[in-house]
Amino acid sequence: MTGAGPCYLSSLSSDRRDAAGNALLNRTAGYALHAALMIAENHGPGRPATRARDVAASLDLPSNYLSKILHALTRAGVLVS
Predict the structure, then answer these.
(1) Which of 15, 14, 7 shows the shortest CA–CA distance to 31?
(2) Cβ–Cβ contacts within 10 Å for residue 22, how many?
(3) CA within 20 to 30 Å of 28's CA: 10, 14, 49, 73, which one?
(4) Among candidate residues 47, 54, 42, the one with its CA nearest the CA of residue 79
């Protein structure tokens, strides 16, 4: 979403490129992507909300670290909390 305001995910992105010039995700951005996908896969009518601690356990991450990632995704409008 260009021009939609500040990008709160800038701390999750990387300006690094591989030998072919493809952008590389940093580790935090990879975790953010996996967490968002996991939440999306478990979302639906009649299904309970996905708990951050369950996502953290699945990704083998500390809950506090994942909480910061999810907060950034929420501020960017990717997730609704």
Answers:
(1) 14
(2) 8
(3) 49
(4) 42
